[in-house]
Amino acid sequence: MKIDISEKAERIFEGLCQNESLSKYIDPQFQIPKPYIGKGSIKLIVLGQDPTVKNAASRQSIQTVLNLDKRGAVLVHLSGVCQKLGIILNQNVYATNLFKNFFIQPPTTIKENDIFQAFLPTWLPLLHEELAQFPDIPVITLGQPVMQTLIKPGVPILVREYWGYTTGWREGKFESLKFIKPAENILGRTVFPFPHQPALRIRFYKHRMSDYIAFMRTEAFSS
Fold first, then answer.
1. Mean pLDDT of 34-46
2. How many domains are contained in the chain?
3. What pTM did the predictor assign?
């Protein structure tokens, strides 16, 4: 039986709003966006960081994780990724955020506290429960901060390291493509780290996108 993630998230959020040390970082005026749930068999989990976009005025319009209920840059990008993986976004993808609540500003810009580590103990158990509905399904993480929050010590910390980056990449010199193994992250899942959508303007990621998606299709979708 599916659990009601939205209901549980709201109860956690209410508790956070009463937390003396953490409530000052929360924007309480917006409801937690709902997960995006494909209509068919789930074959891929897309994991975002949190819903706090930089433009504060536009936050009130976010009703679904990553705004995947509306046509926009993220929807177009992920639809293209799914097509190359041989799946369909609105049928086979479940998308959620690690941190469900809105913050007062994007958490990477909050310097007085490590927001990710401060809020992780609160939200991680719910994420584990959430993903348990879809056993053995691979995960795409969107952005370096969320990936770094999930990996264990000693695991490469930069997205580009998994995409084969070397200083000679312009001359065609690459390291092997990699994913994060279940034993290397706190989700216990196969994780393929992707840059956040705005970082796709970076030439290295544009150059390597097709190769990394082909690698992912071989590793996770070939059976």
1. 96
2. 1
3. 0.95
Q: String of b and e for 28-61 (b: at least 16 CB within 10 Å)?
A: eebbbbebbbbeeebbbbbbbbbbbeeeeeebee
Give the pLDDT confidence of 122-150 residue by residue, as tens digits: 999 999 999 999 999 999 999 999 999 99
pLDDT value of residue 1: 41
Q: What is the dihedral of CA 85, 51, 75, 129, to 10 degrees?
A: 40
Q: Domain containing 98 — which CATH number?
A: 3.40.470.10
- Residues spanned by the domain of 156: 5-220
pLDDT of residue 223: 66
pLDDT band of residue 59 (cuts 50, 70, 90) is: confident
Query: What tokens appear for 106 in the block?
Result: 């994007």
Long-range residue pairs from 122-129, CB within 8 A, at least 24 positions apart, any chain = 122/12, 122/15, 122/16, 122/22, 123/12, 123/98, 123/99, 124/98, 124/186, 126/5, 126/8, 126/9, 126/12, 126/100, 127/96, 127/98, 127/187, 128/187, 129/3, 129/5, 129/8
- At 219, list the tokens: 């590793």
